[in-house]
Amino acid sequence: MRAAVLKEYRQPLAIEEVPDPEVPRDGVVLKVIACGVCRSDWHGWVGEHPRVKPGQIGGHEYCGEVIAAGPDAQYAVGDRLVAPFILSCGTCPQCRSGASNTCLDQRLPGFVEPGAFAEYVAVPRDHNLARLPEGLSPTVAAGLGCRVTTSWHALTDRAALKGGEWLAVHGTGGIGLSAALLGKALGARVVVVDVVQEKLDHALSLGIDAAVMAGDDVGARIKDLTGGGAHVSVEALGIPATVNGSLQCLRPLGRHVQVGLPTGHTARMEVDMSAVYQGNLALFGTRGMPAWRYPSLLSMITSGAVDMSPMIAREVGLSDVSAELAAFDGPTTPPGVAIVTDFAA
């Protein structure tokens, strides 16, 4: 099969013919229909993701059609499925408690095992997968495995966002834009923050209530705009400036949700703990979403309560992934996300 392989950090991925994946006993092999290019893939490409090593086939936001199923699989050839990027075991204490996104024995295609920047991907533990609903575009569905699911879990489970509350979103890349759109669908008033005016304008065109250019006084400006500060703030980049801006924009008893991945040189950072102390703030970490929560998210989308299609900026070929990864180096990435849909190009 054709795949994009990491050979050296920060170098173009090698488009190679590699062996087709073996069929997992408890899972399936998917013919990949669509796969998102995510900032987490960039962290691996630059060498700052601790799990991603040379030789890796990336790609963890995917949907596809089953072409082979193992003897213990729950799905069959022809089924169209979407997958979370964390494949939980289903039996450890974390999984039994419902928090399968914190599974003690995770399988991670795209980070440790071969991912979906390829024509086919093996997916073990197919109890984590969900059927692609009729009428939902595979291109849109590809983003559900990481960006959209993580945002949904961050807002509804970790922060318990309520209708009428103010939600601030720091960073309007794929995960930030997802959080903003889902926040609006949940009835919140939403303000977004970014360093690129084009991205702010794009968010406003989608019905987001307010937009603020990032800067040293972003916390004060959001407090003024919202009449006291956001109730919930989502940090979607994982860098000190936006982490502290998120904390500083909250009203007393506000909830900060760390969605952006702090890794490599940002794994440890200086944080405004005075804002946490003075504001009696709550800080939540979040990563992924328990697979059993897929129906609640899919029903929001298929019912028309939220339209996630505006987050898709462009469809690209497999050989374009390197350029998309390199674009994450700066703040000039255009609004929306790229989805690989042509695995022959």
The beta-strand count equals 15
What number is the mean pLDDT?
A: 95
N/C terminus separation: 13 Å
* Strand composition percent: 15-25%
CATH superfamily membership of the largest domain, which one?
Medium-chain alcohol dehydrogenases, catalytic domain
| Contiguous uncertain segments of 5+ residues | none
CATH topology of the largest domain: Quinone Oxidoreductase, Chain A, domain 1
What's the order of the H and E elements? Answer: EEEHEEHEEHHEHEHEHEHEHEHEHE
Shape: globular
Domain tally: 2
Largest sheet: 7 strands, mixed
| Second CATH tier, the architecture of the largest domain | Alpha-Beta Complex
CATH class call of the largest domain = Alpha Beta
Structural class: alpha/beta
Summed up, the helix count is 11
Backbone CA Rg: 19 Å
Helix content: 25-40%
Short précis:
Keywords: Metal-binding, Oxidoreductase, Zinc. The chain has helices spanning 39-45, 93-96, 138-141, 147-158, 174-185, 197-205, 218-226, 240-248, 273-279, 294-302, 321-327, and strands at residues 2-5, 14-17, 28-36, 61-69, 80-82, 120-123, 130-131, 166-170, 189-194, 210-213, 230-235, 250-258, 282-285, 312-317, 337-342.
Verbal overview:
With 345 residues, this protein is an alpha/beta fold. The protein folds into two domains: 2-146 and 289-342, Medium-chain alcohol dehydrogenases, catalytic domain (Quinone Oxidoreductase, Chain A, domain 1), CATH 3.90.180.10; 148-285, 3-Layer(aba) Sandwich (Rossmann fold), CATH 3.40.50.720. The chain is 26% helix and 23% strand. It has eleven helices and 15 strands. Strands 3, 4, 5, 6, 7, 14 and 15 form a seven-stranded mixed β-sheet that branches. It has a six-stranded parallel β-sheet with strand order 10-9-8-11-12-13, sandwiched between helices. Strand 8 (166-170), helix 5 (174-185) and strand 9 (189-194) form a beta-alpha-beta unit. Helix 4 (147-158) crosses helix 5. The chain starts with a strand and ends with a strand. The model has no long low-confidence stretch (mean pLDDT 95).
